[in-house]
Here is the input.
Amino acid sequence: MSHPYRLRLPGPTTVPARVRQALAKPVVNHRGPEFSAVVKEIETGLQRLMGTANQVLLFAASGTGVMEASLANTLGPDDKALFISNGQFAERFATIAKSLGLQADSIDVPWGETVDPNVLSERLSKTDYQAVVAVHNESSTGAVADLATIGGIVRETSALLIVDSVSGLGGIDMQQDRWGVDILVSASQKALMCPPGLGLVSLSDKAWHVVDGETPRARFYWDFQKARDNAVNCQTAFTPAVSLGFGLCEALRMIAEEGLSNVLTRHERLAAALQAGGGALGLPVFPTSPIRSNTVTVLQVPEGRDSGTVVRHLYEHYGTVIAGARNKLNGTVIRFGTMGSVDESDIILDLTYLERTLCDLGWSVEQGTALKAAKEALGAT
Ligand code: PLP
Here is the structure.
């Protein structure tokens, strides 16, 4: 392959050089003052991104691990959770619940859309749920949940609002405390510019009240109480992923130096440019939800075309690794990460190679229109 490897997935994402250097630091005593200072700095940095004053818990895990932990710490077999199901990761969350023996109901929303708040209110008025579970940024479709509205509804009930922001945190706005998110889970390998391997959690007082209740819970590694008891001393309950901690600390410094609001605006501009360019190539944005993702751009391929061919060709001929879909959207969409360490030149190259790919594959595209549309979008903001 003549082109350099370009990681343009919706996670894991490119790890910038500064973070890679931090990852290469010598491992230190995970219970010593050096690493405690790192844990403290991570907590402060994440609190800013999460919009919370809550304690932040760190686990050596991928995002799925902390999704499971959020359920294992708050729900038992007699409890019922309501899953807002509008994509692959929402489905995964409900599957985890079922595998833990929990009662999982769902509001089934067409993929690419988001829940109608009236439907959510109605479901909560009819059944006493202990939790409502939502995905903030559904990476399989690019739909973003209106958490301010969902949180406002759930706050009026005794249910906890559990939210997966694995692919949102650090790339799109999150206001955990203001929106009433009771448990927020995320992971290191997306907008946070780190390798996979760190699961991040923060809990509201309402959630801690449930975790601290009398009900016995089947948990050991995932025990949030043990995690909190250690977190107050800037430690983790079990051996942490020390090197990833160094990396995340550096990534959070980079975000702070750029300024969180500038980081969020950069994500918005770049996603808008990629989406404009995709549209000009005849690949419209997939989600129809009122809020579309700035971290994952999901483009539809025309009927009768196979998106897998585009994904393969981009990799084999242009070194550009993007995602298709291995779910009910199989063959119909392509997905780019527009999060973390990305800039305008990434988007320009994405569209240049996408246009060449479509030409190579014999699709009829008007050359130059994608870059023109992208540059207009970039110029407009
Ligand atoms: N939730 C969302 C929205 C995701 O995008 C992903 C991963 O792509 C996950 C959950 C699962 O996270 P992990 O792959 O880190 O287990």
In short: Residues 260-280 form the longest helix (21 residues). Residues 11, 62-64, 89, 135, 137, 139, 164, 166-167, 187, 196 surround pyridoxal-5'-phosphate (CB under 6 Å). The radius of gyration is 21 Å.
